[in-house]
Amino acid sequence: MCINTGKPVVKVKPDQRVFRGERVTLTCDIQGGGDIQWRYSWFRDGNTVNPYTTSAEFSFTADRVSVSEYSCRGERSGSHTDFSDAVTLTVSGLPTSTVTVTPDSPVFTGETVNLKCVINSYSNWRYEWYKDSVILQTSERYTVNRDTLTIRGATESDQGQYWCKGQRDGRPNSSTSSSAVSLSVKDLKPKPELTSDPAGAALTGNTVTLTCRMDPSTGNWDSYWYKHTLNPETEKTETNSYSLKIDSVSDGGQYWCRAGRGKPVYYTQYSDALWVNVTVIPKAVVMVRPDERVFRGETVTLRCDIKWGGDTEWTYRWEIEGTNNQYKNTVSRTSTQELNISSVDLFHRGKYTCTGQIHTQRSQRSDAVTLTVSAEAQASVRVSPQPWLTEGESVTLICEVSGSSKGWTFSWFRDHDHLSDSSRGAGGSYTLSPAALQHTGVYTCRAERGRPAYYTHNSSSQTLWITGVSASVSLVINPSRSQHFSSDSLSLSCEDQSNSAGWTVRRYTDKDTQTCTKQTGSGCVMDSLSTSDTGVYWCESESGEKRRPRNITVHDGEVILESSVDPVIEGETLTLHCLHRSTNSPILSADFYKDGSLIQNQTTGEMNITTVSKSHEGFYYCKTERGQSLHSWISVRVSTASSSHLVIGVSVGLSVCLLFFISLVLLWRHKHKKAAYSVTECKTTTKTQ
């Protein structure tokens, strides 16, 4: 049965929000209950926790973090009041505390150690420090500044478990005890290890990284650097590495480091000295095989050489600047110093440079080598001293590749046949000494180089004319000129002052060597010339002797140059005509050229050079409004008379010199005998006395 009284009210001390460990007192106040003796019942979250007590107060310690609702009611004579309204009691945990240690454990004897007690909420804390469950008292070595415990000059006796706790005047009046932190103190000073990257010799212009390495288990350190001396005034402070820019050899030498931490700074031992040996940076050099000037299809090897005393392997980097925008590329190589192009083409032309690298260090870039690639290689032949000679004299044929001279070997051909002693001309020169009649012929050469071999085209032909001391056979050409129009007729014959029998006309063309197809006795007739009839023609005996080779050129154009088929004798007059096909007579106006240069223009169709000399030898052609002739080689021979005069002059000179020498010898002998006679006469006179 419910008593008609006021509703009970629950009052809470110290507050509805308390901290774990605090004492809480709940009071059940029955409104209008008077001085009647009541019994009280307490409920937590609807469950009875303290029934029928005579005290209106219910006290307990908040021993766990929780949120609960408390209510009460009063009873008397079997009747009870209504339940009070529920009061929420919130129990919070105490502020936590943690300990941090600077520097990180382990520490070393002599270091200053700072332990900090960190409480994450509220303020105005008083801090208590404990070591191995014993509260620490301040002293010269142990000082407390607010939240920090400082241990000066740590010793091994300071090893142990450290923890802290906070106290304050307000609520909450304490924190939790921190977890214990183990402090380890080592007696031996640590020593860092100093290393360099790259190791070994350093090259000027590069950077060397020095690393001062401490055992990671000893915590964090700053590094102090020293060069050439341990004077602290030379120190530099960085982290654990020091970038050394190598500008000159003077940047080399001894380097040290040591580590330090804390305030005041605690220093480790010095590292062992590290020598940084500095070498002047070498320069890369590009070498090209077979040559910087090559031809399409050749195999080319570019090699990057670096002269350096070290034994470390270089890696190489090639850079190519092409001659056109389609080929600008960088080729990298990491293990080989050669760049091989198996079949070079025109787009490989460009400037090639290379650099070497050892770890992070680079050599100087090489000078650029310009690779020139031509479409095709052409050999050419020249003769020294002249293609006209008499048997017994010497002559040298020289084979050259235009614009390139390196690495070639040469093969020689006469009348299309490979010469068995061709190796004599491997160096580019083929010498006949003494020259014999059978050496007369048309010579060509071919060059090759590289592996696999690259061959040039065969050279243009060079005819050697070797005549006997008394050559009686002549090749007579009608009409007597070296150039002829196609479709014209031409006759050639071998004429001997004594007997023409047994001589035939032979010819050499780009295709082969053969006997004139329309042979008539010792002559040959060609009714309708074609350009394929261009070649060298000569007389050949049954025994293989060759006489009087002559160049015949057939032109299918409108203009030819008329010149003598025979060499011009030095001192004589050279006459050239420019002929037109339709009239087969000199043209009224023509330009004449020698070796590509204009020497006479727009005069008559004739040019005369009086008193010819060796300087007039060369290729001649003429040009008119109707067209241009082919080129003809004009040879100039020393006259027989000049040669005879030279021989006589030399003979007379030698004779005079010889007579003069004999006179000197006779004079000397005469004086020598006279002196000897005087000495003998003197000795005889002395003996008589």
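Above is the first protein from milestone M3; the second protein from the same milestone is given next.
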Amino acid sequence: MNVNTEEVVACLCIALNGKPISSYGDHIKAITLLSPTIFPIVYAAILGKLLRRLGLYKAERGATIGDLERLIGCQSIFSTLERQFGLRRIDVLGCSILLAWLLSPVGGQASLRLLTTERRMNTFNDTLLYYPIEKYAEQTTLLKSDKSASPFFAPLFVTALQTSRHRIANPMDLFGNVRIPEIASLPGYDPKSEGRWYPVVNNTADTVGNYTSVFGIPIAGLPSSGNVSFNIISHYWTINCTRQDQDQHSSSWSTLGPENTTLTDIKPQSPSFDLTIDEQNSTDTNISFVYQTIIEPNSTFFNQPNVTSIRCIALPVVVESRVYCLEKSCSVTAMRDVSDRGPDTLWLGSSKTPLDVFRAIAVHMPGVDISARQEAAYGSELVERWLWNPNLDRNATSAGWINLSLLYVPFFSQRLQIAINTFWDSTIGTVPRMDSLTKFDSAAFQWNSTTMHVAEYQGLNYVCHIQLAVLTMIISVVLLLAANLSMLLGIVTRTPDVLGFVSESARDNPYFKRYVPSHFSGLEAARALRDVKVRIGDVRSEEGVGHIALATMNTKPERLSWERWYD
């Protein structure tokens, strides 16, 4: 590879810029990987020879020893620095030589980075469909007339609880739907700041995570590959429980499951907890209810169980989420509160209000995970065991009663919120929730649409870094000029190349008994004297003060000694 080759390679790299990868381009890229190895060798050969010939040219016309020493002796970056410090002189000549040698590693690294590859992306906008839970109260089975003991959505809800420990902190649910975080848990959230976007940091190390439901929002039309970003609007219930009141032998157990049984009607198949709406203090935007749970039976279990009552507030929240997907792996990256739309627009086209819906949740959720063969001795049902420990380890699933009065209230509020939203989600869009993200039935369900920005990967393109290519070409041109100047100096300079050769110490040396023609260059003299044995020794050993010189062995120079003085 010569100087012209570097320029040609740089031009070829510029021509490949933006082109798809090919075998031809890979060959050019392979050459650029070889350049850093060959480039410094060629550079040193050209610049080193130029400096020597320039030194001879200056010596023929008269020059200082300092200038000649730097021109002849600066054959590398290290020797250049050594000469500058050794001569205690920094001037234009020394700095120019140092700069010239520094161009060698710069040129080598520039040629190495001439050609790289990058992903070729095709960007476009398309329409994405998502299942807007907040608008479809009519789709939920909670408001249907059928109140069977084991409705069809019960298995989905129970499965979500039993498998949640594997994905409880993941941004996507078991079916590949994107999960919505709790906006109030985001850093810096201010409920008074309307329309502000809050970044979401997914923390998979959290045991429960900050998501509102085990389920995510069903999405249809997501591309099978590429990066996608879009916004969706969704609804969830936020639960805040402020205090716990333990009431031993309580008589306030007013509703027990779907049949609104009384305290004396508790049977082995009855729920172990109850949700009671405080109708007088509840509105569509602020629903007050009491969570009542059996902590353990007493001697008269079927008459008066020990009950803990926990007062809570449920608020309907509407949020807009910014979602980013990388190869169908999606997560919410930012959120903002859009609850100012109000309860009238929360479920468009529905005659039901948020209070109606939550009332249905309170009726159907207790006991949904109890089969007809539930034994009374088993104790608390699955929902409460999940509230106690979402991982559902061996201790949480053993027979007995869970005392939720011992659970830290913020933990209880967060887990009850996830359980209620998971139950609510399981009653809506059961089929599309478990279907593929790319399939949908527009006739059976109503879908919301949103604009998604897609960047599809379409292979690799070559990228030529133009600045490095220009730099490589400039250095190559400088080397070409240096090579031509060196050749010209070799023609016009009559002085033989004798500076810096050991053989030149034999020229006109009285202690060197071999004749060296004066017109020989240093290399020619070295070739003529290559078999002559010499020694640097004491040529005046018989005198009191010795003299050190390069001499042939036939002059019998003595070896140097630390015990003698030399002039």
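Note on the second protein: Residues 23-61 form the longest helix (39 residues).
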